[in-house]
Write a structure and sequence with these properties.
By secondary structure, the chain is an alpha+beta fold. The protein folds into two domains: 57 residues, no CATH class; 140 residues, Alpha-Beta Plaits. The protein contains five helices and five strands; from the N terminus they run ααβαββαββα. Strands 1, 2, 3, 4 and 5 form a five-stranded antiparallel sheet that branches.
């Protein structure tokens, strides 16, 4: 079936074409009016104890890195499994509009995880600025509580405990509204293709029933 055939069918089946264009228009309006979300991101850096007395989580070069991995696996968050998300994809890019994510950044490739720094990446998203701040605060509290629980098992005093540092010290919020032009373009293309598919189906010649003997 050629493009000219589709155009002929579109004119002949004008009501189908009109319905397809109307539905596409509604979808475009919905995409353009989609409310933004608010996104916050920070890093929790694990530091060795202040005293010279080390513990099981800081007595070797990779101990802090392993502790960060254990915390990430224990916390994760309401934004999905941290190990299944690429470091280049944010929680917003995954489609979440509310929640938080805690993961250990990997410096390896897409097919190989490699962790070289005792760092935890924390992301939070919500529909309002206050909601995003609350999600971030809850995530950071959960991370600190988990680190404390691991060290409570060792019965360590304050001076012998692993410390944490937040970078930046005050997580900044950013409004994420998405790429409206791209969204409208993809929606319009999808609506056009769907309409053409329906018209193509309606334009196929029907088989004549065979004669019975």
């Amino acid at each position: 079936m050629t493009l000219w055939d589709l155009l002929t069918i579109a004119v002949r089946r004008w009501y189908v074409t009109l319905a397809g264009l109307a539905l596409t228009g509604v979808a475009i309006v919905w995409v353009m009016q989609a409310p933004p979300v608010y996104f916050a991101q920070a890093s929790v850096v694990l530091l060795p104890p202040e005293s010279a007395v080390q513990n099981a989580y800081s007595d070797a070069p990779r101990s802090l890195i392993d502790l960060a991995g254990a915390v990430a696996a224990s916390v994760q968050g309401s934004g999905g499994d941290a190990s299944d998300v690429s470091d280049r994809v944010t929680i917003v890019g995954e489609g979440y509009r509310e929640g938080y994510l805690v993961r250990q950044p990997s410096v390896g490739s897409q097919w190989e995880y490699r962790f070289e720094d005792p760092v935890l990446e924390v992301q939070a998203v919500a529909n309002t600025p206050d909601g995003a701040r609350a999600q971030m605060e809850h995530a950071l509290d959960t991370v600190q509580d988990t680190i404390d629980e691991f060290q409570d098992e060792q019965q360590l005093d304050v001076a012998s405990r692993v410390r944490t540092q937040l970078v930046p010290s005050e997580p900044q919020l950013s409004e994420v509204g998405g790429n409206t032009v791209r969204g409208v373009g993809l929606t319009a293309l999808a609506g056009l293709l769907a309409t053409l598919a329906v018209l193509g189906t309606l334009g196929r010649p029907r088989r004549k029933p065979g004669r019975s003997r």
